[in-house]
Amino acid sequence: MLVHAHPDDETVGTGATMALYAAAGVEVTLVTCTLGEEGEIHVPELELLGPAEADQLGGYRLAELDAACAALGITDRRFLGGAGRYRDSGMMGLETNKHPRSFWQADVEEGAGHLLEIMREVRPQVLVTYDENGFYGHPDHIQAHRVAMRAAELATAEGFGPAKIYWTAMPKSVLEAGISAFAQSSNNPFEGIERIEDFPFGTPDEKIAARIDGTDQHEAKVAAMRAHATQIPDTSWLYSIAGNFGSEFMGVEYYTLAAGQKGPGDGPYGWESDLFAGLPV
């Protein structure tokens, strides 16, 4: 089970992982917490869908999410508490954080209760979400973390909590490689960044627990990204990575282990290659 904040987060952060396990026949459940109503719109003819106009972007992004999940092979996709219960809060510090339906204003116990209902049904062995900072500080990502972790705690108290909980992560060595690889590129996504410390995210390699190689699912991830056209324009740096360094930068995803026993791995840090490593078959 993966708990994400907005439509498109599932693809950018964990798309290769989801596609890999879905292709292997593993039951994958995606829970999205908001419709992404406050997202930027990169399709000019759809600008009137924005919150200052018709405020219908969320409904449109629901359709984008459906198309992205189809590309990834995901058939079990749900919204926390039902589609539209919680609204996109926008970036940290904006007035949209104060909207009465914003996810940032949501009661964590209530949200965890909605997620617990889904957990009771699907009984996930592995739960994936964000770290305490929501990977990069977005309020809805932070709230998704809080809700997911509380729901896991409640599920464990009832006797069916996930055996392992992972948080999305990016090794500092990969960020360093990205800075170097794109240094001479005309479309450099790391332009202006010279030090790892300048990133709002990045995990020391020794703290990474799992490296999931989904390079065979690279095309599925790119197709899912294209499904989220309002959020990911054709000029996005993500496509630069996909085109020039696809298998290395787009098809491999990393995680820290927040709960559960680390399974067998290899390499200098013993990174797992399977999120189910060490669990009974």
UniProtKB/TrEMBL annotation:
Matching InterPro entries: GlcNAc_PI_deacetylase-related (IPR003737), LmbE-like_dom_sf (IPR024078), Mycothiol_biosynthesis_MshB (IPR017810)
Keywords of this entry: Hydrolase, Metal-binding, Zinc
EC number: 3.5.1.103
Reactions the enzyme catalyzes: 1D-myo-inositol 2-acetamido-2-deoxy-alpha-D-glucopyranoside + H2O = 1D-myo-inositol 2-amino-2-deoxy-alpha-D-glucopyranoside + acetate
Cofactor: Zn(2+)
One Pfam family named in its UniProt record: PIG-L
Keyword flag Isomerase: no
Lipoprotein in keyword set: no
Binding annotation for Zn(2+): H6, D9, H141
UniProt remark on cofactor binding: Binds 1 zinc ion per subunit.
SUPFAM superfamilies membership: LmbE-like (SSF102588)
Origin: domain of life: Bacteria
HAMAP family associated with the record: MshB
Function: Catalyzes the deacetylation of 1D-myo-inositol 2-acetamido-2-deoxy-alpha-D-glucopyranoside (GlcNAc-Ins) in the mycothiol biosynthesis pathway.
Family: Belongs to the MshB deacetylase family.
Full protein name: 1D-myo-inositol 2-acetamido-2-deoxy-alpha-D-glucopyranoside deacetylase
The encoding gene: mshB
